[in-house]
Amino acid sequence: MLTDSERFAFTAHRIHAFETTGNAYDATQIDEAIETGDTLLVHAEGVVAVAMTWPFAITTAHGHLHSMAPSKDGDTLEIVAESLKVEPGAIRRAAEFARQLGFEIDPAVAPLLA
Question: Does 5 have pLDDT greater than 70?
Fold first, then answer.
């Protein structure tokens, strides 16, 4: 039988869905319920992104959200995540969600996930 610690040993992850990437961007600026590292979904535009002050898309499509710059030699997911002030897991979760939806991962992001 599981103890209380074992039964509740999980981390919740929020996904916020929007009609447009413009709406998603605006919401990250004013909605206190959206936290840095949450996943943003704009299904109609094929976009999955990571919430932060400057939300960035994990997918090739990015709409009105930021896209990631190509990584430099020696960059790892941890280095890039730290520079963006997000947890590496936030990027991994968003990428996995995008893949599950059949969305193409941004070529700047894909090497970091390998």
Answer: no
CA distance 62 to 92: 17
| CA 78 – CA 75 distance, rounded (Å) | 8
Structure tokens at 42: 């704009």
- What one-letter code names the amino acid at 15? I
Strands (E), 1-114: 15-17, 39-42, 47-50, 56-57
Q: Mean pLDDT over all residues of the chain?
A: 93
Residues 91 and 112: their CA atoms lie apart, in Å, by: 10
Q: What is the pTM of this model?
A: 0.90
